[in-house]
Each structure stands twice: as structure tokens, then as C-alpha cells.
């Protein structure tokens, strides 16, 4: 008797549940169910779009704060650090020495610009290089930075030997760095006139102030080492010449990449 009553009760519950779900399906037309699915899909699409927009904004903000163009120029840092770690006698052999270079040590025309007189001297020049890469990274890309570095270094060394006989020896990257700033600013003139003009004005004012003292060698207040100011002048002039050569080459070859 109890079993029959329990079975009847379960059948009644099952019929009631089926009635509820059947009534719910009857009250919800197919079009309404399709609309609900569409609303869910639209919501998911909008959420994904907002997520992608936020991600792209973060990526653009990162690129605005840190440019990756021309980062290959940073290979100069471990090179200079390795040379700075050499024994003093070895570093001296790499400096531009008027007597030894004419005796056949021609590598000094290039190596002198990678050897520094102290770690602080090296740090100051590498900081200047990092600022240059952030301002004009695209002008240093594609090997133009390294080629310009070699051209300016040799031109600066030869100019010191020819036009500054009072300079007996030289070492450091500041002359080449001045030239790279001038080259990069001139190369970027068409697209970044204001920035290029500001950089050229700063470099020009600095060189004018140094030459106004009428001293080939001064002492830096930053690193307390002798500074050959003529190297900055010759480097800047060499940078201007290099910018002209790059521009002429781009026009002859109609190289679109030179317009970056």
C-alpha cells in the first residue's frame, strides 16, 4: 500500500515538473530565444573588443615610452666595457697617440673612440647614446648607425692629427657621439623638424661655447678628466658630412627606407 502511494507521488511530481518546463518553453517563443542568444553573442563580442583595445593601448603606451628602433647600437656597450676592463697598458695602446699612430698603429684611428679614461667617462657617453637611440632610433637602424660611427670616428681622428697639433693623444666616444647626434637630427629633419632643430641648437651652442674658450683641451666638471673639445667640433662636422652622403645615396638609389 505504501509502495503504491510512493509510486503515485513520484509520477505526480514528474508530471508537474514536465508541465513547468513545457509551459516555460511554450511561453518563450523561438524568436525570443534567438534574441537572447544574439544578445549574449553581442555582449561577448563587445567584451573581447574592449579587451583588445585595452591591450593595444597598453602596447602603444609602451612603444611611446621606449623605442626599439636602432637598438643594435647598444652592442657598443659590451664592447666598450670589455675594452675598459683591459689592463691599463693595453688600453693605452688603443688610444690615439700622435707619435705611435704615425709609426704604423693605424688601428688607433678607430679604437681610440671605444676606449675611455674611466668607468664614469664610459657611463656618461653610453647614457648619451641611449638618449640618442630613443630620440632618433630609426636613423640608426639598418646599419646606418654603425657605418656612421666608423666614418665619424676615422674623420674625427684624422682631423685631430691634422688640425689640432697640440693634441698629443685622445680617447673617448664623445666626438663620435656629437657627430651621430648631428647626423640623426639632419636625417630626421623632414619628419621631426622641431625635435631636430632643438637638438642641433643644443649641439651647436655647446660646441660654440667650447670653441669660444680658445682651448683645445679643458677639464670636465662631470668626470674630472681632460676633454679634447676639438673632437666634438670635428665629430659634429663629420656627422653633417655623413648625413649628406646618406641623403645623396638615398636619392640616387631611391631608397624608401631612408625616409624613416
Task: Please indicate the percent range of residues in DSSP E strands (runs of 2 or more).
Answer: under 5%
Main sheet overview: 2 strands, antiparallel
Give the overall form: globular
> What is the CA–CA distance across the termini?
94 Å
Tally of discrete structural domains: 2
- Average pLDDT figure: 80
Q: Which regions contain 5 or more consecutive residues with pLDDT less than 50?
A: 23-27, 53-65
Can you identify the CATH class of the largest domain? Answer: Mainly Alpha
Number of strands: 4
The strand line-up of the biggest sheet is 1-2
SSE order, as H and E?
HHHHEHHHHEHHEEH
If helices are DSSP runs of H or I spanning 4 or more residues, what is the number of helices?
A: 11
**Backbone structural class:** mainly alpha
CATH architecture of the largest domain: Up-down Bundle
CATH topology of the largest domain: Rhomboid-like fold
For the CA atoms, what is the radius of gyration?
35 Å
Helix content: over 70%
CATH homologous superfamily identity of the largest domain: Rhomboid-like
Architecture overview:
There is one protein chain. By secondary structure, this protein is mainly alpha-helical. It has eleven helices and four strands, in the order H-H-H-H-E-H-H-H-H-E-H-H-E-E-H. 72% of the residues lie in helices and 4% in strands. It is globular, with a radius of gyration of 35 Å.
Amino acid at each position: 500500500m505504501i509502495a503504491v502511494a510512493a509510486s503515485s507521488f513520484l509520477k505526480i511530481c514528474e508530471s508537474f515538473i514536465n508541465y513547468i518546463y513545457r509551459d516555460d518553453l511554450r511561453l518563450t517563443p523561438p524568436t525570443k530565444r534567438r534574441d537572447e542568444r544574439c544578445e549574449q553573442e553581442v555582449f561577448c563580442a563587445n567584451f573581447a573588443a574592449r579587451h583588445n583595445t585595452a591591450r593595444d593601448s597598453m602596447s602603444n603606451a609602451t612603444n611611446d615610452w621606449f623605442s626599439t628602433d636602432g637598438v643594435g647600437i647598444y652592442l657598443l656597450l659590451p664592447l666598450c666595457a670589455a675594452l675598459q676592463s683591459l689592463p691599463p697598458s693595453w688600453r693605452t695602446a688603443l688610444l690615439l697617440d700622435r707619435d705611435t699612430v704615425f709609426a704604423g698603429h693605424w688601428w688607433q684611428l678607430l679604437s681610440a673612440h671605444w676606449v675611455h679614461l674611466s668607468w664614469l667617462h664610459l657611463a656618461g657617453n653610453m647614457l648619451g647614446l641611449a638618449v640618442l637611440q630613443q630620440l632618433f632610433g630609426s636613423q640608426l637602424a639598418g646599419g646606418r648607425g654603425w657605418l656612421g660611427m666608423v666614418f665619424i670616428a676615422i674623420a674625427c681622428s684624422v682631423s685631430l692629427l691634422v688640425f689640432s697639433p697640440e693634441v698629443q693623444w685622445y680617447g673617448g666616444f664623445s666626438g663620435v657621439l656629437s657627430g651621430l647626434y648631428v647626423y640623426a637630427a639632419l636625417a630626421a629633419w623632414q619628419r621631426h623638424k622641431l625635435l631636430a632643430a632643438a637638438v642641433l641648437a643644443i649641439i651647436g651652442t655647446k660646441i660654440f661655447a667650447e670653441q669660444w674658450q680658445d682651448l683645445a683641451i679643458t677639464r670636465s666638471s662631470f668626470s674630472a678628466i681632460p676633454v679634447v673639445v676639438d673632437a666634438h667640433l670635428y665629430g659634429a662636422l663629420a656627422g653633417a658630412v655623413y648625413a649628406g652622403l646618406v641623403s645623396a645615396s638615398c636619392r640616387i638609389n631611391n631608397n624608401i627606407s631612408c625616409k624613416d
